[in-house]
Amino acid sequence: MTTKLFGERVERREDRRLLTGIGRFTDDLGHDAAQAAFVRSDFAHARIRDIDVSGALDVEGVLGVYTHDDLQGGFAERLPLLIPHRDLKAPRTQYALARDELCYAGEVIAMVVASDRYIAEDAAQAIRVEYEELPVVVDLEQAVGAGPLTHSDAADNIGAHVSEMKGDVEIALASAPHVFKWRFRPERSASMPMEGRAVFARYDAGQDTLEVYDSTQAPTGIRAGLAELFELDWDRVHVIAPDVGGGFGVKVMQFYPEEVLVPWASRQLGMPVKWTEDRREHFIGSNQERGQIHEVRVGVDAEGRILALDVRFLHDTGAYCPYGLIVPIITAAQLPGPYRLSNYRYSFWSVFTNTVPVSPYRGAGRPQAVFVMERVIEHVARELGLDSLDVRRRNFIQPDEFPYDVGVSWQDGGPTVYDSGDYPSGFQLLLDSIGLDRARQQQAEARAEGRLVGLGVGCYVEGTGIGPYEGATISILPDGTVSAATGLSTQGQGHETIFAQIVADELGVPLERVSVTTGDTRRIGFGVGTFASRSAVVAGHAMLRAARSLRDQTARLASTTLEVAVEDLVFEAGAVHVRGVPEKSVPLARLTLVSNPLRYAYGRDARLAAELAQRAYAKADRPLPEGSRPGLSALEYYSPAAGVFGYGMHAALVEVDRRTCNLRILRYVIVHDCGRIINPLIVDGQVLGGLAQGIGGAFYERIHYSPEGQIQNASFMDFLIPYATEIPPVELHHLETPSPRNELGVKGVGEAGTIPVPAVIANGLSDALGVAIDHVPLSPEEIFQLLHPEPK
Amino acid sequence: MKPAPFAYHRPGSREEVDQLLAQLGSEAKILAGGQSLIPILNMRLAAFGHLVDLNHLAGEPAEPAVAGDELVVGPLVRQAAALESALVAERAPVVSQALRHVAHPAIRSRGTVVGSVLHGDPAAELPAAVALLAGSVRARSRRGTRPIPAARLWTGALENTLAEDEWVDELRLPVRQPDDGFAFEEFARRSGDYAICGVAARVRAADGELKAAVAYLGMGGLGQVHALQPMAAEEIDGPGLRSALTEAVAELDPGDDLHASARYRRWLALELGLSCVRRAAERALK
Ligand SMILES: Cc1cc2nc3c(=O)[nH]c(=O)nc-3n(C[C@H](O)[C@H](O)[C@H](O)COP(=O)(O)OP(=O)(O)OC[C@H]3O[C@@H](n4cnc5c(N)ncnc54)[C@H](O)[C@@H]3O)c2cc1C
């Protein structure tokens, strides 16, 4: 009996290898490969006067030392701008090896390849770079004001200015009973996956082929780009993402310098070359996110209904903008969240600074957006003497308003139109779960004792599952197992499990019989990548379609074999049965065999196939009937016309310890809705992991830049990722509002848990302390300063 | 993050260590648990021509022992072993209390007690506990052995007074007296981190009076012990203790860093000190 696996708490099949240390990551491969190390800029802004590599050449075991002068053709040009945009007037990307100007501390200057990493680092240390220091700009406001130029040949530091409006904000503000103005400042942070980046490249001169193992979220893109750079046919270039130890966005960026240089060195030297990023390199060489400054004007009526919202924000894109304007566009489009804004205008400036480049990090511009919007709600309530929960209720988009058009563009270039949701019900469930009356009473009692307890709430909408497309190829193998592959790669989310669930359901085979391969261009060359909480939605439907097409093929074959109509067939327990006649069935394995006439009876089952072929010849038939092909396999793609929008709301009861000024989270409740749930266990894991990362973003993880552009906490001693001990117990509730935009009714969930947490914690602390908190992350030091301001 | 080249030595006896250090001088560095030294080498914050690995010394005790009225801790006693030791909990409870705040199990199972004391991080727990107890280390070399009391062991952050050819084969801690009460408190951003501020306290109940002493961590110095004016038991809960501790905190010279300003650290020192001394007093009076 095969039960339906969709919706079941199926255990993650990848966990056995990942949790017992037998996963295979890029660094587990190529033990005999030569290894690369890099010389990176000491300064945030400088011109290279001279590079003296002679010290490195003298080190025994060094195989190659390279600077920009050694690169030719495409390799010597700037790396590609991944996502162009019509308003991105002054885009900048970096060179694989810096040519003359260095624009952030960490920018790659030279590469050393040696017989091992130790020697490579010794040699890298022996390279002398003579710098001419240039003025540095780190602060966003200085960058748009009178501060120095990030790029000395640019007119200013503004890469792009984008603005859109729904309704008419000026008119609405002019007539609004109350107009307020506030400023908010989410700060710079970083994804920090457990595994850094890694590249292992094998160029085969005889075959003129290139095989690259890359800890990337987007192997298909890397493959296409490398093929172009190397001027090789796609067929000659393959990219594989083996096990990847977390990505969170930082690995979706395509063409970090090392990704180009390591394969290049492999061809140059005619030997396999490998590079595994260490944590120090990750801090200064892998992209970051989150830094923005918002100025908000809001017009409201006496009940707190938002009549107009006007947001102007500066987005820190770091020294380069390889990922275009995706992050600020998402911030702008998702800022309204679950609230009905009839008049909404945003204007943002994407600003260059002499810091590590910026590209999406889990949440991708949304934690900032939600922080701003949810602080606005709290401010409005405070100004008008209202309950902020009521203000939220009054502004929610109602369930009968879907599809709901936010009125501004989405990151894919289309309109931002929500597909479905029920925000008021979700909110009510949240308040019921936290026990609002009891929580408020608890708070009042605590306050009476002099304790500082606050309630924080935050709501978000998350656009997920965008295109362009993903594909899936599925075959039934002669042993009856099913082999499925998709182009996007996995970073531990559980894709192997959920894709197998979808395929197993469709073909009526037990889960164990389905194997799933991700991120291997040798299996499927077309695909996009893992980002934007899109894999379950987009690749999930590609799997569904391929499985269905395979099922149709199989059914046609079975109907001939069993001599019944296709409609009378049931797929179950790895076989095709005649409905109502369970003993009349044929296993999938057998069907694969009979579809594949053989000359050689290599084994017992293969005899049948060989006999079939002989029988066909005896009748002077083609063994493989016209229009058919051997084996059972299907390749299908899914391309959604628009994304799908999940949502959720979090509440926390927090306390500030008066003695230590530290944050304590007393209760934490999550309600979230990602449409129909394929696997609740995995969704729980995604949401809880997201929450932990969100708590990092709220109270721990912040990249501290000095005014000179140096990261002052570039290690796990000082960049504080919360441990399990810092994550509170969580109460988690799922709602399932199916998406009408796709057959499974699913929406993405990968980023959801992270998004509202900074807003929730800031709201809770603001409530506990009775002060406005308008930047994140916070810290005990800041709470101390708020409670005990320096005497003037 | 790979270290610069070094020669590796694996002596089998204390005498061999003496020999190697005499030979190699300032080029040599002792390697114990490696939990502080190896990261320093990997990040190339320092480089040494020779590492002398203590981990293969024969016959070294794995656990602390009592000799007379002292607790003796050998150079290969791991922090985990000391934390699990009933002897330590009974004879030097403040060391057990401190160890609970030192890092995480993986690090404690490798890191040594002596290594932490000699490493001399001002934010580390064990140096404060050792200072509070007025412990000492035995420095040895081919020239002989000499005791170094905690008060003279550290000259500053990550600096100790061992000569180039010296190393330590024993930490000695006076065992508690019957009327001693101890407590340890700290504040760190995350559980197991080095302290932003911490305090170790001893209260000795004698002749109807309480004599308290405190040692801080994360507050700049190393090895300082502040003896408070003797006070009556009632004063522990009154303003007397606060003013005594305010004086002690005034002697500290904490710095500002990314995680805490000096002003915040002083606040923590006072707040943690109050509850820490009170808890120690309760224990002393029990
Ligand atoms: C992630 C992490 C978190 C940590 N958190 C904390 C914490 O919260 N609190 C804390 O106190 N520590 C912490 N530590 C440090 C840890 O406690 C170290 O183990 C300890 O400080 C050093 O002990 P070790 O045996 O590892 O010494 P090693 O690293 O081997 O050596 C440290 C220094 O002591 C010298 N040395 C060691 N033994 C001798 C000897 N017998 N004679 C002479 N010199 C010697 C070495 O030459 C070296 O200079 C942490 C470490 C890590 C990696």
UniProtKB/TrEMBL annotation, chain A:
One GO molecular-function entry: oxidoreductase activity
Alphabetical UniProt keywords: Molybdenum, Oxidoreductase
Alphabetized SUPFAM superfamilies for the sequence: CO dehydrogenase molybdoprotein N-domain-like, Molybdenum cofactor-binding domain
Keyword DNA-binding: no
UniProt-listed InterPro entries: Ald_Oxase/Xan_DH_a/b, Ald_Oxase/Xan_DH_a/b_sf, Ald_Oxase/xanthine_DH-like, AldOxase/xan_DH_MoCoBD1, AldOxase/xan_DH_MoCoBD2, AldOxase/xan_DH_Mopterin-bd_sf
SMART domains xrefs: Ald_Xan_dh_C (SM01008)
Ranges where the Aldehyde oxidase/xanthine dehydrogenase a/b hammerhead domain occurs: 20-135
NCBIfam families: CODH_aero_grp5 (NF040766)
Protein name in the entry: Xanthine dehydrogenase family protein
The organism's taxonomic lineage, starting at the top: Bacteria, Bacillati, Candidatus Dormiibacterota, Candidatus Dormibacteria, Candidatus Dormibacterales
UniProtKB/TrEMBL annotation, chain B:
Top-level lineage group: Bacteria
Alphabetized InterPro entries for the sequence: CO_DH_flav_C, CO_DH_flav_C_dom_sf, Diverse_Substr_Oxidored, FAD-bd_PCMH, FAD-bd_PCMH-like_sf, FAD-bd_PCMH_sub1, FAD-bd_PCMH_sub2, Mopterin_DH_FAD-bd
Chain ranges of the FAD-binding PCMH-type domain: 1-178
SMART domains for the chain: CO_deh_flav_C
One GO MF term: oxidoreductase activity
Keywords carried by this UniProt record: FAD, Flavoprotein, Oxidoreductase
Pfam families tied to this protein: CO_deh_flav_C, FAD_binding_5
Database matches in SUPFAM superfamilies: CO dehydrogenase flavoprotein C-terminal domain-like, FAD-binding/transporter-associated domain-like
Name the record gives this protein: FAD binding domain-containing protein
Gene source species: Candidatus Dormiibacter inghamiae
